Amino acid sequence: MARVAIVGATGAVGTTMLEILSERGHEPNELRLMASSRSAGRVIATKWGDVTIEDLATADPSGIEVALFSAGGGRSREFAPAFAASGAVVVDNSSAFRMDDQVPLIVSQVNDHAVADHHGIIANPNCTTMTLMMAAGPLHAAAGLRTMTATSYQSVSGSGQTGMDVLAHEIDVLGKDRELLAKGGWSEPGSDLYSRPIGFNVLPHAGSFAEAGYTDEEWKLVNETRKILEAPDVLVEPTCVRVPVMVGHGISATMHFERPVSVAEANEVLANAPGAQLWDDSKVPTPLDSAGIDDVLIGRVRQTLGEPGGISLWTVGDNLRKGAALNAVQIAELVLDTR
Amino acid sequence: MARVAIVGATGAVGTTMLEILSERGHEPNELRLMASSRSAGRVIATKWGDVTIEDLATADPSGIEVALFSAGGGRSREFAPAFAASGAVVVDNSSAFRMDDQVPLIVSQVNDHAVADHHGIIANPNCTTMTLMMAAGPLHAAAGLRTMTATSYQSVSGSGQTGMDVLAHEIDVLGKDRELLAKGGWSEPGSDLYSRPIGFNVLPHAGSFAEAGYTDEEWKLVNETRKILEAPDVLVEPTCVRVPVMVGHGISATMHFERPVSVAEANEVLANAPGAQLWDDSKVPTPLDSAGIDDVLIGRVRQTLGEPGGISLWTVGDNLRKGAALNAVQIAELVLDTR
Questions:
Q1: Structural domains of chain B ordered from first start
Q2: Which residue in A79, B164, B218, B282 has the most C-beta neighbors within 10 A?
Q3: Which residues of A are identified as catalytic?
């Protein structure tokens, strides 16, 4: 494999990127790990030997062929253009460039063809959108998606390691003092990560409020779906909710197409969808089933009881893997394959 | 107050019925508590003195004026008709009689008028439907509901005390052994209550599978909504999901009406809805906020981004209180008021 850098190497997604490079048998010609100055100097043991974390702010990107960024939108905006200018292809996991016309937004195995149009930066979609597209993409290709209502069950690791720390803390310490938990009376760690407790609770509010009463997380579902599916007119009704799950984002979706789609047709399309497993109702897929595996799981495929002719289904995927690190590595593979 | 019996007095809902009778200042002329033979003979300390649990199978219903049943559909089918025949008005919390044409299905403060048509049995709706109707009912009255997509986040107490025991067990004991939890390898208590672990997980499968790939819980949302709103043609698309929350059922809903409805109009309707609190986006209502209070909480009211002209919102309520025990007591109050 090429000379690779992982930017944000100490985070939940960066760590998973390292695992996935290893699992997929890659042998980088060079591997560089970068993070904020806080982590610089730490030595990480990798399959390919020990690597010392470099300070992103001072690292020289020369010679890097592929840079996997997962260090937040601010750092991507600040540093990704310089990496691209020095010759690297940046695969960026943040939202910084996703809606940029010059930047392809790729769900590997759904719209791989768009990789060809890059100008040095390729964006990795939002983790909830990613999981949903693994089902919606093939169905759209078959029948033309017209409307989609999508309601999420997003795990705390979507907020990074801090999200997992907050949930573990609330469950372990404050599970014994439910009254304190209800009042939101905890202090450490990450007390300002969520607006309300997440232990024994759900928050119908993932991300920050943006236009029209929808959160930025919900707008991502709308806008990224349209860009990935190349369907600017598709109508998406999003609701993003955080749930007390460590890993695995679930989405309940109802879709209507240009024509009625039967369950038999939907099942045939989804059974052949790459990167996805179609489960029948004898075992409904849950976040725990999806955690740690590459495939997105699809279940509960059924004809709509509401507006006729549509399909309702449930999809769940590991938000750190397909929802982030795996897809970034898959994009890198596409780039290296097509050079 | 009249001579009252609580049937299923030792369960999560029966216990809450006792609390609510007390909180609302009722002084029953007689209070009888009944349960299965397992609990018969136990003495319960109530606000009105000690009461010995009677065995439902052998109890004589003579003289009872109002019987609040929450002992499961089987016991309701077996015993409620005899209670009604002996002169009691039965308020039944099970699904046994809900769709019976001779049985009113009442969400107090939404369709109180239908109480008048009873023939000895009145049904209390499903807890998820109940919470949703507190928002959908007033909006339907204002603008005529045409379609509704409803996706639930249902707490484990909807499965009774066993549900809470299972979640506590999985969190406390198996939270330390995530691998065992993932495999579903626990044994006690209530190991057969849910098909998969609920701790650190969500189950997109509440209830049992019924027709067309929907669960009985989902069909209740469809059929009970139509009956309560007297809107047999309303199109409901239901998805019911269990989440690791102790108390409080949340529902994300998107509604379209006979005409476009603005956020301003919806907010005005919902701000005046009895038994409900409308919260703005400065504090989104969560299950923990709803637990232990009577009002259903409504938030995130917004114009649809998908099909135009509709309203999306979030509603959450205490499934043991408004979702079950409180509404049953409110129905009893309606019956006693109108005698």
A1: 3-125+325-337 (3.40.50.720), 128-161+191-319 (3.30.360.10)
A2: B218
A3: 127, 249
